[in-house]
Amino acid sequence: MTPAHRPAALLTVLALALTGCGAQITPEGEKAAGGSGHYPVTIENCGVRATYDKAPQRVVTNDVGITELMFALGLEKHMAGYVMPDDKGDLGSVPYKDAYDKVPRLSKKAITKEMALDAKADLVFAGWNYGFGEDNDLTPASLKKLGIGSYVLTESCRKGPDGSARGVMPPLKALYTDLRTLGKIFDVRERAEALVKRYEKQVAQVHAKIPAPGDRPSVFLYDDGRDKPLTSGFYAGPHDIITKAGGDHVMKDLKDSWTTVGWETVVARDPDVIVINDYGDTTAERKKEFLLSYAPLANVSAIKHRRIYVMDYAELVESPRNPAAISALAHYLRGVRHG
After folding, report:
1. How big is the CA angle at 186 (ends 182 and 189), to the nearest 5 degrees?
2. What is the pLDDT of residues 124-176, one digit of tens each?
3. How far apart, in whole angstroms, are the C-alpha atoms of residue 18 and residue 333?
4. What's the pLDDT at 22?
5. 5 phi and psi, to 5 degrees?
6. Per-residue pLDDT, 89
7. How far is CA 165 from the centre of its chain?
8. Distance (Å, rounded) from C-alpha 61 to C-alpha 38?
9. Averaged confidence pLDDT in the chain
10. Most buried among 105, 132, 280, 311, using CB within 10 Å?
11. Per-residue pLDDT, 257
């Protein structure tokens, strides 16, 4: 599901997260279990601590980025299947194609409790507002009642008194946190740490070559929407992707992950570049046509100079594709002058 198409709800259900499949909520002061290969192991996910007595064996994942986190760690044998709508792209020529071929695709529709039950899942790995949500009664709490555990994508952690905002750490830190935490749960810590180190090095090499702050082109992320654009705040993947690639993210002051703004805000911030998130029923070409023809944007620098760059959905949500996406965007931004 798209990261911001469901209303957020109360944080209280998070207190029930990560239970089932041998996982139990632990007292706040309890420390994690010892070295690799030893269970039980205690982890923290979106502020909730849980203890796993063994590695889950029948995980159901929702969406492309979450599924590929499991694939990057080589955990296909621990998966009962994945759920992914057709609007998330063609899987025929993507990274981890071999893994996609091995793991059943359970549905091309929205994930449900019934899918998890039919798959005999012992863990559902999804995100708030892309997978988990009270409106479809798929929450850690509802799954717990069925004896199924949950893991919440860190990019989507909810916060605030009403849980209406998401994000508790910068996007790349969320990616690295999930890799390391999954490494503990599934006893692949060394593999997880090697991935994190490789990604950190890749990002650092790109970031070291970017312009000084005053010379960086400003960038707006356009997800979708006509009346109001859906975009990325500080806590969604595009923030770090844009920043590490040498751009100035114009919505960095929004302390949320995926959220809407007014077009007047976009006009006022006058981005040099607009990045399109390519997914959904509206093609990237149609999104581009709309942006170029929308009268209120006519004097925005990105529109005047036709500086519109298309990126795949899987590159922009938390996923193992984020570091490579930073490299690709950096290459494009090097040809763009600020102002």
Report:
1. 70
2. 999 999 899 999 999 999 999 999 999 999 999 999 888 888 999 999 999 99
3. 40
4. 46
5. -105, 10
6. 63
7. 15
8. 25
9. 89
10. 132
11. 95
* Phi, psi for 26 (deg, rounded to 5): -115, 155
Residues shown for the chain:
339
- Single-letter residue type at 189: R
Give me the residue label for tokens 């004097």.
299
CB 56, CB 32: distance < 8 Å: no
Residue written as tokens 């957020």? 8
Closest CA to 48 of 172, 167, 135, 157: 157
As a whole number of angstroms, the distance between CA 260 and CA 129 comes to: 14
Q: Give the position of tokens 């996982």.
A: 23
No. of helices (H) and no. of strands (E), the chain: 12, 17
Using a pLDDT cut of 70, give the percent of the chain over it.
Answer: 88
Query: What is the four-CA torsion angle of 7, 8, 9, 12, rounded to 10 degrees?
Result: 160
Which tokens in the block code for residue 288? Answer: 């581009």
pLDDT in tens, 274-306: 999 999 889 999 999 999 999 999 999 999 999
- CB within 8 Å of 293: residues ≥ 6 apart: none
CA geometry: angle 15, 6, 128, nearest 5 deg: 35
Give per-residue pLDDT as tens, 196-216: 999 999 999 999 999 999 899
